[in-house]
Amino acid sequence: MVYEPVIGLEVHVQLATHSKLFCGCPTKFGGLPNAQTCPVCLGLPGALPVLNQQAFEWGIKTALAFDCQVAEVMKFDRKQYFYPDLPKNFQISQYDRPLAKAGHLDIAANGTTKRIGITRVHMEEDAGKLLHDPKEPASYVDFNRTGVPLLEIVSEPDLRSPDEAYQYLVELKAVLEYLDVSTCNMEEGSLRCDANISLRPAGASEFGSKVEIKNLNSFKYVRAALTFEMGRQARALDAQQRVAQETRLWDLKSEATESMRSKEGASDYRYFPEPDLVPFVIGRTVVESITRALPELPAQRSRRFADAYGLSAYDAHVLTEHRRLADLFEQAVASYRRPKPVANWLMGDLRAYGNARGKEPEEVQVEPAWLVHLLEAIDQGTISGKMAKDLFVDMLDQQQDPRQLIEQRGLKQIVDDGALDRLADEVLAAHQQSVEDYRKGKMNALMFLVGKCMERSKGKANPTQVTEILKRKLS
Amino acid sequence: MSRLCELTMHEARARIEQGGCDPRELLRDVLDQIERLNPLLHAYIAVDRRRLEAALDARLRQGPRGRLFGIPVTVKDNLCVQDEETACGSRILAGFRPPYHATAIDRLLQEGAVIIPRANMDEFAFGSSTETSYFGPTKNPWDPARVPGGSSGGSATAVAADLALGALGTDTGGSIRQPASFCGVVGLKPTYGRVSRYGLIAFASSLDQIGPITKDVTDCALLLSVIAGHDPKDSTSAPVDVPDYVGRLSAPIRGFRIGVPNLPKEGLDEQVGRAIEEATQVFQRLGCSTVPVDLPHIGSSIATYYVVAVAEASSNLARYDGVQYGYRATEPGYPRGFVWRSQTCGGGRRECREPGGERPPTHTLSLLDMYERTRDEGFGAEAKRRIILGTYVLSRGYYDAYYLQGMKVRTLIKRDFDEAFQRCDAVVLPTSPTPAFRLGEKLDDPLQMYLSDIYTISANLAGVPAISIPCGSSREGLPIGMQLVAAPFGEEALLRAAFAYEQATEWHHQTPAIKGSDPVGQSHGS
Amino acid sequence: MSVVTKQDVQHVARLARIRLEDAELATFVPQLDEILGYVRQLQSVSTEGVEPTSHVLPLANVTRPDANQPCLDPERALRLAPARHNQFVKVPKVIE
C-alpha cells in the first residue's frame, strides 16, 4: 500500500542571553562542570525564580517573526516528573497560557511555497546534563545547563515528507539567525529537535498512531530518522501490525530508531500554575513596538534580492537561507556591480568548499573584499577561470586576500606576446613529432602542445593566447 | 525586672543604646535560660553556645549597629541561615547547611541582631502542634503536657519562656498566630508579599509568609519594620513602601470600625468565645464601633486550604530526592540514615543525626529505589500524607474537581474579605477554637488537627494580614488569643488596634510559671 | 462509599516516588479517604463564572535585567551532595 507520512516537529531553541532564564548564572557552553550554578538553578530549598527580561522580549520577538498571536496574558506552570538532571523535579514551563499560538512559516517545497502551521511557542528552562559511567552502575550530573532559557516551537502536523521536515528546519533556523536571538549551534545543543511521525494510507484523513523520535542532533539525522521510520512503519502496516504509540531514539551507529521501552507510558505531569512567578501581561503597545523593530526576515530578503539584483527566485531563496551568506552577497555586490557571478561563486564554490569540509556554507570564513578581488582579477584577465577556482580554495584555506596570493606566487598570467612567442618556439622545437601529427590532421596534438606550454610556464601562460600563437606558427 | 532575658526587644534596645546593658551579658543570660529550660521545652533543635558567643564577639568588633543591635532573636528551622544547619524539622534535610541567607535573615543581620538558629517546628511546617518534628516535639511552657501550637511552636515557646527576646516564624495556615495564642505571645502574619519569601523553605508558595512572634505589640512592630519591604529576588514580593510601624503605634484608634463576623461556632470553646466578646467590648470602650460582617465562605476555607496547600507542597517537596543534598537512602544492610555523631543540643549533650564520616556506597540501589526509599525514610507520616494528597488533587482526572475548584472557592473567600473591609477596619475573631490541647491528642486524627485551623486559614487564602494577641486565660490557666484581620497592607491598622488593646489590658503581663521555677524534678519524657 | 481505594493511593504514591510499607498504607488509606471526603464539600460550592485565584496580589511582569551574578563556588554546592564523583553529583545509573 502507499502511505503518506504526517510529520510535526518540536524545536527547542536556546536563547542567547547572558544569564539563565530565572537567575544570573552564565549560559556559556563548555564551562567546568557544576561551576555555573546558584541556589536558584540548583533548586536549593528556599530559592526563588525571577524571569529574565531579555528572554521574555526575545520570546515575543521570535513569536512575532512567525506571525503568531502573542498572548495578552501568559503564565508559567510546573511540569512535574522525577529525573536526576531536573533539580526541583519539576520544570518551569508553560502549559495552557503559552507565550504565543497560531503562527506559520512558509517553506520552499516542490518548486513552490508551502505554509506550515506553528501551533505554539512557549518558554521553559532547560535541564542539566547526565553522563553515564561505562564501568560502574552510576550516572553523573552536571547542572550548568539547568535553567538555560529555551523557546519551544511546536509545528502543526503539516509536513508530508522527510525532505519537507528538513526544509522546515533550515528555514526556521534562518529566521532565528536573522532575529539574532540564538546561536543555533546544534553541536552545543542550542538548537534541538524532536519529531513526531505517523503514517496513513494515501488519501486517508484520519491519523495513524504517532511515534516521537528523540536524540536528533542534526537536521540530516532528522531527515534520516524520519525516512527510516517511514519504512519501519510501512512494513508494520503492510504486515497488518499495529504501530505502537511510543518514543523512539535515533541511534547513530545503526542508523535506526530504537524503542525507549515506552518508559513514559504512565506519565502524568500534573501541570499547575507556578506560584513563585506572577502572570505576564503583554500589551498591544509592546507587541507593536517589537513588531516595528523586527529585522528583515529571510522571505522578505529573498523577494528583495530577486527584485533588486535580478536573481532568479531560486537563487535568491538559496542565498538568503543563511544570513551570513546573504550578508556576504550584499557586501560584495556593494563594490562589485555584477550580482550573478557573485551569487554563483557563493552558491557553487563556497558551498562545495564547505561541503567537502563538513561545514555549512555560512560557517566558512570569508571576507567580502576577497571575493570582489578574485572576481576583478578574472575580469581583468590577470588569472584564468581555472586558476581562480584553485585560488579560491587557497584563499579560504589560508585566509588571505587573493591579491596578496597572486603577488606572492607571481601567479600573474603571461600575456606578453614576445614571451609567449619564445615559449611556443621552444615547445615546437622540442616536440617535432607532435608538429607532424598536427599537420597530418591530429587535432589532439595541438592540445598536447598547449599543455606543454602551460607546463613549461608553470601555468602562467594565458591558454587562449598560447593556442592562437601555436595555430599561427603551425599553419 | 530581675533578669535580662525577660526584657522585651524594645526595652533591651533602649538599655543597650544607653549603655546600660552589655549585649554579651544579655546573650549569656538568654543562653543560661536555654540551658535551663530547653531540655524540658525543646524549643530549639540545637544550640551551640560557643559558636553563638563567638559570633557575637565578631559582630561587636565590627558589624552594623542597627535597630536590633545585640538583641538575640531566634528563627524557625525553615529559614535559611548561611552555613548553619537548616532542616525544616525533617530528617530529609538533616545536616543541610544552606550556602546562602534568606532575605529576612539578611535584614536581621543588617540591623545587628544576634541570630539563634533552629527554633523547632512541625516537619516542613505541616502541623498545628510542633509534634511532627523529626527532632522531637516542643512543649508548651504554660503546661509541658500540652502542645505549644504549630507549626512555629519552637519560636513561640522560645519567646514565651525567655529563650529569645523575639522570633521569626512562618505562617501558611495559622502557623504563627496559633502558637502565639497557645503560648500567650504576639504573632503577626503579614500581607502576602509584604515580607520576602526568598530563603524560606517553601511549604505552599502562594500562602507562606514570614512574620514576627514577640512578647508585646511594640516588639512586633519593630521586628516587622525590619523584615518587611520589597525584594527583587522574590517575584511575589510587593513593591509597597513600609510605614513607620513603631512610630505610628500610639496613633489613636477612636472611630475604628471593628467587624464582628458571624462564625461557625462548631468546636468553639465557650471560654474562648467569651474572651473574644469581652475583647470586643474593650474596643468599644476605646471608642471603636462594632459592625456585623459576613464571611459566608469561611466554612469552606479548610477544604480549600487542604487542596491548594497540599498541591503546592507536593510540588515544592519533590526536590527532596536524595540527589543533590540532604538525606539519601543507602543500600540494604547499612543502617538507615546518617552516621551518628554527638553534639550539643539544647543545652545538654545529646545525640543528633549529622552527616559525616564514611558514607556507605549509595549507587547499588536502582534510581527508582533510591528515590522511593529516600522519600519513604526521609519524610515523616504527615509529610507523606500531604504529598500524596497533593499529588492526588493534581493528578489526571482530579485536577478540575479539586485543585481548580479550590482556586475558585479561594476567589470567593478573598471576595468575602474585600467586602468586609468595605465596612470595617479590622475583623475580630478567635485565633484558635480552643486553648492549647494535650500532646498526642490529635496526632492520630489528621482531620481533627486540620479543623483546628478554622479561624486562621482564611487570612492566608485571602492574602490579608492578621495578628494574634493574648486576650484571656482559661480555667486551666492557659492563654487565649484574639485575632485581628485587616485589608491587604493594613498591618499598621492591626498594630495600632492591638497596641491600644494591649495598653488597656493586662493579659500580656501574664507569664508562664515555668520561667522562674526550677524545672529540675519536673517530669519530661525524653 | 469511599473516595479513594488502596490502588489509588499506591498509584499516587508511585507518582510522588514514595514507597509505602503495607502497615503505613493500611493507616493512610482510611485517613486519606476521610480527608478527601471532607474536602469534597468544595464541589457543592457554586463557582459558576468565578475565576480561579492563583495569586492574591495583583502583581504582573516581574522581571530582572539579563545580567550575570556571581555563581556558587562549585565546591560549596558539591559538598552538599550525598555522593559525588570529581566535579559531578553522583546518582544511581539512569537507564535510558
What does this structure look like?
- The complex is a heterotrimer of chains A (475), B (526) and C (96).
- Chain A is an alpha+beta fold and 475 residues long.
- Chain A folds into 3 domains: 3-289, no CATH class; 296-409, no CATH class; 417-474, Arc Repressor Mutant, subunit A (Orthogonal Bundle).
- Chain A contains 15 helices and 17 strands.
- In chain A, α14 packs across α15.
- Chain A starts with a strand and ends with a helix.
- The model of chain A has no long low-confidence stretch (mean pLDDT 87).
- Chain B folds into 2 domains: 4-305 and 410-513, Amidase signature (AS) enzymes, CATH 3.90.1300; 306-404, no CATH class.
- Helices cover 35% and strands 13% of the residues of chain B.
- Chain B has 15 helices and 12 strands.
- In chain B, β11 and β12 form a beta hairpin.
- Chain C is α+β, with helices and mostly antiparallel strands and 96 residues long.
- Chain C has helices at residues 6-15, 22-39, 74-79, and strands at residues 63-64, 84-85, 88-92.
- Chain C has a two-stranded antiparallel ribbon with strand order 2-3.
- In chain C, β2 (84-85) and β3 (88-92) form a beta hairpin.
- The radius of gyration of chain C is 23 Å and the shape is flat.
- Chains in contact: A-B, A-C, B-C.
- Chains B and C meet through α9, α10, α11, α12 and α13 of B and α1, α2 and β3 of C.
